[in-house]
Fold:
Amino acid sequence: MSKANKKKKEKGKRDPRNTLNDFTGAEWIYFLNSIELIEGEPELMTGEQLNDLSKSQWVGQQGPIIDTLFPTSGENSDAHHIRKKHPSPKPPQLMKRLIEFFSKKDGWVLDPFVGVGGTLLACSMANRHGVGVDLSQEYLDLYQKATGHLNLEPQIVYKGNALQLETLLSSKNYLFDLVLTDPPYGNMLSKKRTGEQKKKTGDDSPTPFTNEHHDLGNMPSDQFYKVLKSVIAQSMEFLKVKGYVVVFCKDLQPTAEHPNLIHADVVNTLIQIPNLRFRGYKIWYDKSQKLYPFGYPYAYVSNQLHQFILIFRKEK
Ligand SMILES: C[S@@+](CC[C@H](N)C(=O)[O-])C[C@H]1O[C@@H](n2cnc3c(N)ncnc32)[C@H](O)[C@@H]1O
Structure:
């Protein structure tokens, strides 16, 4: 922990209602962070053929956690002021890091849930070809606006339903090196949370992406998993053998009824696709998010400041 953080953490009063521990409010909040960073990085294998990284760059990519604090304003924010009109834009710099590991220069990348184009902007930054699909013309227009603002070459986009990917892409002869995507997570995520609900539950789920019934964000969870599986299976029709499928995912707060380990449910669903093998995950720790005093001073409620980056490979 940095000196500044340590100082912050030590501040604050103990609450007499807290019967659980001797923490102050500030100490409590810091404990709720789902991630604590351990210094040092493990050394792993060397690479061949997959990407353009040197051995030391390859090793540098193997750490389990990517922690980022990308600016959300100003020149270095990758047009965040345009992209923030979407409920959950991904930082292009983060996507670029993944693209550079899982493909080579001039490679082809598909994102069936493109939003305002975190993946596609990263393709332009990394000299890859990108193809994206989204239900919403509004988000695709914001993506185009962001490319103009950043002076980047626009990639190919289709307005349409990712469930019809086979039809949308059938005449194009695409062969992708990588599918990199960040799907919406069922209608359990699309309920609006008021500030008060959020304070009580720690549930900071986003608002719906669109009002369309094809939107995966508006589907009940059993339908959602079937549809996600179908979209990824269709993406694989256009993916080369040994190409990777990289899927973002966030868990929900556990409830009495369900542990809500969404990442485990997604893995267990997607490994049912023939020839798709789960290869592990990385964790993205987004330090631009705030810590809230959920549950204080009565019970532990995690601040989930991380997302899972689930990594699969098409084996045959
Ligand atoms: C989590 S967001 C992706 C955000 C994106 N990574 C970015 O950087 O902006 C998921 C997107 O999937 C889109 N979507 C939902 N259901 C879809 C469907 N059936 N077909 C295509 N796009 C869909 C939503 O409109 C939303 O923009």
